Amino acid sequence: MAQQEPNIIIANNARALDAELKWFQKVLDARLKLQMDNGEKIPDISAILPPRHDSDTSMYASLTVHYGMNYAERLAFILALIPHIKPQLLDIFLTQNAETNRCYTQFGGKNALGDFKGFLPTGETLLYILAGDSLEKRFAFSYLFAADHFFSVHGVLTLEKATQGTPWLSGALVLSPEMVDLVTTGVVRKPVYGADFPAKQIRTQQEPDELFLPPHTMEQVLEIKSWVQHGGTLLEELGLGEKIKPGYRALFYGPPGTGKTFTASLLGRLTGCDVYRIDLSAVVSKYIGETEKNLEKIFSRAEHKNWILFFDEADALFGKRTSIKDAHDRFANQEVSYLLQRLEDFNGVVILSTNFKSNMDDAFTRRFQSIIHFPLPKQGDRLRIWKNAFSEKTLLEDQVSLPELAEKYELSGGAIMNVVRYVTLMALKNQRRTITGTDILDGVRKEFQKEGRTV
């Protein structure tokens, strides 16, 4: 489909959805009249055909054509979408049964979710519209909620997990936020950092030639790029999806400041993928089961999104399991087992970062496609970093020798940049644009002190 202007996309989507809503209204009216059975001749709902999409260029039409949605699937999709675009269409389901003085049981639904005052359709609501009182039809349409249906496989529409002890169809119909965005504005919103998504997008404006890595390390990093670009072909077109696990898991390990976070950000830039850095302080919880719930929010949102998830200082989540001494240890080990399974099932790219490989549980490391060492830069690389680090609008004192700095002080790239930040601030503080050797030595000393070393 040719690229369209945003206002045209919105207009096309609105027109397509308006026609779909009118179709849904006719179907719903027919179902309600069939239930009342007042002698009026009402056609079966399957005879009320949905709008055709022969020449429709809307995102909604493209979506239904792409997935080859049938009658029931289109009805399920538009029903789940209605609370987002025209919730008043479902107000009829809030009608009370005069005999029981409460809402009709067969309507299903939820109407008590925070500030939302409307009716939230559930699996029960959908089957009522599709099947009425027919058990045979009801059972037949349950395929819509199967794990292998494209709704579930591609994260299009899910049935919310029902409260324990209640019928499974009492879960709400949940349309993914991305689908809501696509069929309305045509622009998928970035997830907002918060309790429901404790991760922040990280980006870099730096160029690939500013990443100084040994050839072997760079070769392994580029393997991840190849996976992002060709993994889908490998799994689907070549049929290896039946033989190997989905997704790609990599471990970055090495001292602080050696480029692990920069590399993850750069991979996003080179592949066009969004990279999200997980806020482990908001994920890890001392309460049993909460860590898994927090992490599931991230994995569920990231499924099928072509994102890269970056777990910095991953030891807090994926560290070695402890020996079982009490109930807390037992639950902690169960937590690690859950994480292991969730990582294996995730179909995207996950990068874990740690300062020490030995801190990671062997059960995780065995399942990584890449374990990549980020060593301290050697003298030649340190010199290149020093040469590229300073602002072009500052000058170096004549006695400052960058080759000597590179040879004498074994620093990471991040530590060198910390020195440059410090000495530039000192120059500005003293109202000059010249970087002195004394300031550089002070900056190096500060970095060494952080690591317990002396100059």
TrEMBL record:
Gene3D superfamilies: P-loop containing nucleotide triphosphate hydrolases. SMART domains: AAA. InterPro entries: 26S_Proteasome_ATPase (IPR050221), AAA+_ATPase (IPR003593), ATPase_AAA_core (IPR003959), P-loop_NTPase (IPR027417). The keyword Magnesium does not apply. Pfam families: AAA. Keywords: ATP-binding, Nucleotide-binding. SUPFAM superfamilies: P-loop containing nucleoside triphosphate hydrolases (SSF52540). It comes from the Bacteria. Residues 246-378 form the AAA+ ATPase domain. One of its GO terms (molecular function) is ATP hydrolysis activity. Belongs to the AAA ATPase family. This is ATPase (AAA superfamily protein). It comes from Desulforapulum autotrophicum (strain ATCC 43914 / DSM 3382 / VKM B-1955 / HRM2) (Desulfobacterium autotrophicum).
